[in-house]
Amino acid sequence: QVQLVESGGGLVQFGGSLRLSCAASGIIYSINRMGWYRQAPGNQRELVATIDNGGGTTYGDSVKGRFTISRDNVKNTVYLQMNSLKPEDTAVYYCYAGKLLSGHDYWGQGTQVTVSS
Asked: Roughly how many angstroms between the first and final C-alpha of the chain, as a whole number?
């Protein structure tokens, strides 16, 4: 079992920045990929960013150039640096961890990010 604990969400003004953190614990040996997804009211959950064990990253089109995902393997933690935030970035952000070989996915509880105008 994998537990994911998110932190760093909150309220920020238009154009501001936030940094989200997600720490993984439990049986983490086979995690291949971690990342962030978000869900706004009335919308489907969408990809924000992922990072694999080799450091390769993917980003959703709406956040490219503004958000950066990184990881600290020693701390088993991934980060999401969010810059130039817009009201449309307002959503619950969920941390994700995947054990791709076994097909197991894990999700955090989510952290609210609200961007005011």
From this structure: 40
Q: What is the mean pLDDT of residues 85-103?
A: 96
Dmax over CA atoms of the chain, in Å, equals 43
pLDDT in tens, 48-91: 999 999 999 999 999 999 999 999 988 899 999 999 999 999 99
β-strands 10-13, 111-116 pairing: parallel
CA angle 52, 15, 46 (to 5 degrees): 40
* Per-residue DSSP letter, 71: E
- Cβ burial of 21 (10 Å; 0-12, 13-18, 19+) is middle
Structure tokens at 103: 């097909």
What's the token pair of residue 42? 């009335």
Tally of CB atoms within 10 A around 1: 8
For 6, the token pair is: 């998110």
Q: Within 13 A of 28's CA, how many CA atoms are on the CB side?
A: 16
